[in-house]
Amino acid sequence: MKINLVAPCMLGAEGLVAAELKFIGAENVQSENGRVYFQGDDNILARANICSRYSERILIEMGKFTARTFEELFQNVKKIPWENWIGKKDRFPVKGSSLNSQLSSVPTCQKIIKKAIVERLKSKHKVQWLEETGELFQVQFLMMKNNVSMMIDTSGNGLHKRGYRAVSTDAPIKETLASTMADLSRVHNGDVLVDPFCGSGTVLIESALKALNIAPGKNRDFTCRHWHRIEEKVWKQEQEKALSEEKTNRDFRAFGYDIDSHAIDIAVSNAQKAGLQDIIQFEKRDIRDFTADFEKCKVITNPPYGERLLDIEQAQNLYRIMGEKFLKRQGYSYTIISPDEDFELLFGRKADKRRKLYNGMIKCQVYLYFR
Predict the structure, then answer these.
(1) Residues forming CATH 3.30.2130.30 domain(s) in the chain
(2) Entry pTM
(3) In a 10 Å sphere around its CB, with 0-12 CB exposed, 13-18 middle and 19+ buried, how is residue 140 labelled?
(4) Burial, 368: exposed, middle or buried (Cβ in 10 Å; 0-12, 13-18, 19+)?
């Protein structure tokens, strides 16, 4: 059976998510701001959760409609076939958001939606009471300009939580953003990669996972893994498929440097949890001592900046040092993310390419130097 699915994602990464979903076999893939719609069967649902590097989570799209009154909201929610997924004993909490809509009270919308689903399920399952003691089906709603989307979350924890980062440094880069930067840098098996501001090692770990084609979700759990609706053999098939597609020749090397010895300890631990300790090395080192003595090298980094860790003057001084250290060299490329609009001026040269992305709620630019 074809399932209508949605992959929310970071603004600016919609194209990457769409391409990724098409590659894994999803059908009717369509992008919008901050989300990608697609279709697939149970295997695609499981595969998207296990393999997506850039999506924030995978949702089942249950229905879309327009609602300007609470009565319209109630009646439209009640029309949706919730019984196709939610059993008479299952849990179905409701959460969501409302933007630029007449129904602006989220708590009231939650109550109305919950009531409508209860009425539908009681009728279809022919019961007077819903226990809500069974499997979890987290209902989500999104209202934008009176247009309502109703969904069920399949992922549980966000897909950026791969499972290797039990501890992190201050202001860590999100795993999905780090993976996006690795994609923009065209990281492949055989590359040498350096991050001179490695923090907890996320950029290096995500780059290694991508280069070796290791599924980011292969070692974590998902809410829908516990649904009886999806057979266990589906998960076994998809995990075996993901494992079979990993690169067995691990010809990738990465080096992480940071001035903070505590950050280095965390990075080493995270790389071990990810099973990458044999290909990523970490060392305490100041950016002023940066050297890269490789024939070819890719530098990908998320330097500290004023809104995260340093004051603006300190951050801008780092950009000047980076401009001095990151020399134009044949076979070298540099990928740097920053929210500072004066980055190129401080760094000392114009980027060959720029890409707008968000680091959390902070609007940034990824600056790519490869010529």
Answers:
(1) 3-153
(2) 0.93
(3) buried
(4) buried
* Contact (CB, 8 A) for 197 and 304: yes
Q: Could you tell me the CATH superfamily of domain 175-212+247-369?
A: Vaccinia Virus protein VP39 (3.40.50.150)
| pLDDT given for residue 172 in this prediction | 77
Residue ranges in the chain modelled with pLDDT below 70: 167-171, 306-310
DSSP letter assigned to residue 175? H
CATH of 3-153, one of 1.10.8.60, 3.90.550.50, 3.30.2130.30, 1.20.210.10: 3.30.2130.30
List all residues 6 or more positions away from 300 whose beta carbon is below 8 Å from its beta carbon: 181, 182, 185, 187, 193, 194, 195, 203, 207, 334, 335, 336
Q: Terminus-to-terminus CA distance in the chain, angstroms?
A: 48
The whole-number pLDDT of residue 308 equals 45
d(Cα 218, Cα 201) in Å, to the nearest integer? 19
